[in-house]
C-alpha cells in the first residue's frame, strides 16, 4: 500500500468511557485521612459530597444552619471539604490519628461561617417568595381533571344525546376519544354514571319494565331502542378496557436504596470490648458487602451473615437486610479467645473448617444487631 493511501486512510478514534465511581461504600477509612481525601476526589459523586457537607453543617451549626444551607449548592461541592465532613460525621477522628484533619476542619469552619450572613439575605428572600405564592389561588389536580373531563368527553356525550333526541342514529368510539383527550381510568367514574343511566332507561323501555320509560321513548322503534342498548353496552365495555390498559401500562415504582450514611445513622453496636480485646469496624463498611462477621459479647455468639443479593447488605435501623438464611449462621463459642482470631485473620474456607469443629449447635441468625454486638469484619465475596 502506497504512502498516499496510508495518509488517506482514516483511523477510528477510541472512545474512553468514564469509570463508574464506587461511592461512599468503598471509602478507605482504615488508611487514614489523606487516603479518604484522595478517594473523595476520585470516587465520590458531587451529590454525595454535598450531602456530607450539609450533614456536617446541621451538626455543627444547629441554629444558623438554615442560613448556611440557603446558599447555592456550589459552596458545598469541594471534595476536600466533603472528605473532612465525612471524617467527622463518622467520628473517625476518635479512632484514627491524623495530623492534617484538624487543619482541614478549621478551614471548613472558615469556609462556612461567612455563609451565615449571606444566607440570611437569601433565606429571607425565599421566605417572602413562599408567602407571596401562598396568597395565589391554585387549582388542585383533581379540579383540573374534572374541568378537563367536563370540557372534552362529557361535552361529546351531551352532543351524542342531542343527536339521539333529534332522531339521528349517531354513535361514538369512547375508547378512541379517551386516547385523543389524554384521559385515563381516573376519568371513568365521572363518565360511567351518565352512560349507565342511558342504558337503564333504554332497557326499561325495551323490556317494558317501567311505564314512564315506555311512555318517554314511545316515539322510538324497538329496533332503535335495541341499537342504543348495544351502543351503551359497547361504551361501558370500552371503559373497562381503558381501566385494564391503564393498569397494564402503569409504571412500577422501584424502591431506591438509602444512601450509606443514612442507612447506618441509627445502627446500634458496640465499638470496643476490652475483655475479648476486639474493636468494631465502622458500620458504614457494611452496605453493599456480601459477608459480615459479628460477635455478641453478652451471649458469646459468633455470627456469620451472608447475602446472595446483587445489592449486597442493606441496613434498616439495627437490622441487617438481604441476608440469605440458608447460608448465614450463628453459634455459641465456649472459647471465644481461641476462635475470634481465626475469624479476624483467615479466609472464609479456613473459618468454615474451624467452625465445623465446634461442638455447640449452629443456628440461623435473625439479622438484628444491638449494643452488645461487635462488628468484626466484612468481605466482598460470599463464596
The fraction of residues in strands falls at 5-15%
Order of helices and strands: HHHHHHHHHHHHHHEEEEEEEHHE
The strands making up the biggest β-sheet line up spatially as: 7-4-3-8
What is Rg?
34 Å
Approximate shape? elongated
| Fraction of residues in H or I helices | 40-55%
Number of domains as seen in the coordinates: 3
Please identify the structural class as seen in this structure: alpha+beta
Quantity of strands, as a count: 8
Q: What does the main sheet amount to?
A: 4 strands, antiparallel
Distance between the ends: 55 Å
Give the count of helical stretches: 16
Runs with pLDDT <50, length 5+?
Answer: none
Q: Report mean pLDDT, rounded to a whole number.
A: 88
Describe the structure.
By secondary structure, this protein is of the alpha+beta class. The chain has three domains: 24-132, no CATH class; 141-247, no CATH class; 260-379, no CATH class. The chain is built from 16 helices and eight strands. It has helices at residues 3-8, 33-43, 46-60, 65-68, 79-89, 101-112, 115-134, 141-151, 153-165, 174-181, 188-206, 211-216, 222-248, 260-263, 336-345, 348-356; strands spanning 272-273, 278-279, 291-296, 301-306, 314-316, 319-321, 329-332, 373-379. The strands form three sheets. Strands 7-4-3-8 form a four-stranded antiparallel beta sheet, covered by helices on one side. The model has no long low-confidence stretch (mean pLDDT 88).
Could you give a quick summary of the protein structure above?
The chain has three domains: 24-132, no CATH class; 141-247, no CATH class; 260-379, no CATH class. It has 383 residues and is of the alpha+beta class.
Amino acid at each position: 500500500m502506497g504512502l498516499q493511501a496510508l495518509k488517506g486512510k482514516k483511523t477510528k478514534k477510541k472512545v474512553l468511557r468514564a469509570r463508574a465511581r464506587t461511592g461512599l461504600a468503598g471509602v478507605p477509612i482504615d488508611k487514614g485521612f489523606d487516603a479518604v481525601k484522595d478517594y473523595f476526589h476520585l470516587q465520590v459523586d458531587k451529590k454525595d459530597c454535598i450531602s456530607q457537607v450539609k450533614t456536617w453543617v446541621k451538626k455543627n451549626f444547629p441554629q444558623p444552619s438554615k442560613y448556611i444551607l440557603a446558599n447555592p449548592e456550589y459552596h458545598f461541592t469541594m471534595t476536600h471539604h466533603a472528605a473532612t465532613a465525612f471524617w467527622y460525621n463518622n467520628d473517625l477522628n476518635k479512632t484514627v490519628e491524623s495530623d492534617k484533619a484538624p487543619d482541614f476542619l478549621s478551614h471548613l469552619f472558615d469556609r462556612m461561617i461567612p455563609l451565615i450572613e449571606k444566607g440570611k439575605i437569601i433565606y429571607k428572600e425565599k421566605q417572602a417568595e413562599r408567602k407571596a405564592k401562598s396568597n395565589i389561588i391554585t387549582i388542585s389536580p383533581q379540579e383540573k381533571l374534572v374541568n378537563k373531563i367536563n370540557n372534552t368527553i362529557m361535552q361529546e356525550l351531551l352532543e351524542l344525546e342531542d343527536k339521539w333526541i333529534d332522531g339521528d342514529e349517531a354513535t361514538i368510539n369512547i375508547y378512541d376519544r379517551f386516547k385523543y383527550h389524554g384521559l385515563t381510568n381516573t376519568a371513568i367514574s365521572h363518565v360511567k354514571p351518565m352512560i349507565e343511566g342511558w342504558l337503564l332507561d333504554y332497557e326499561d323501555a325495551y323490556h317494558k319494565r317501567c311505564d314512564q320509560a315506555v311512555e318517554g321513548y314511545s316515539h322510538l322503534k324497538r329496533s332503535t331502542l335495541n341499537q342504543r342498548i348495544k351502543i351503551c353496552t359497547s361504551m361501558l365495555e370500552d371503559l373497562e378496557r381503558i381501566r385494564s390498559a391503564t393498569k397494564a401500562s402503569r409504571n412500577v415504582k422501584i424502591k431506591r436504596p438509602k444512601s450509606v450514611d443514612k442507612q447506618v445513622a441509627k445502627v446500634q453496636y458496640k465499638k470496643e470490648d476490652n475483655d475479648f480485646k476486639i474493636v468494631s469496624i465502622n458500620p458504614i463498611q457494611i452496605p453493599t458487602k456480601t459477608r459480615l462477621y459479628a460477635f455478641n459479647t453478652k451471649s458469646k455468639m459468633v455470627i456469620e451473615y451472608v447475602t446472595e443479593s446483587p445489592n449486597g447488605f442493606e441496613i434498616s435501623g439495627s437490622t441487617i437486610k438481604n441476608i440469605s438464611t440458608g447460608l448465614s449462621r450463628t453459634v455459641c463459642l465456649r472459647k471465644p479467645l481461641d476462635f475470634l482470631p481465626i475469624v479476624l485473620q483467615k479466609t472464609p474456607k479456613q473459618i468454615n473448617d474451624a467452625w465445623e469443629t465446634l461442638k455447640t449447635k449452629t443456628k440461623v441468625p435473625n439479622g438484628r444487631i444491638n449494643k452488645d454486638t461487635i462488628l468484626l469484619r466484612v468481605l466482598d465475596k460470599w463464596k
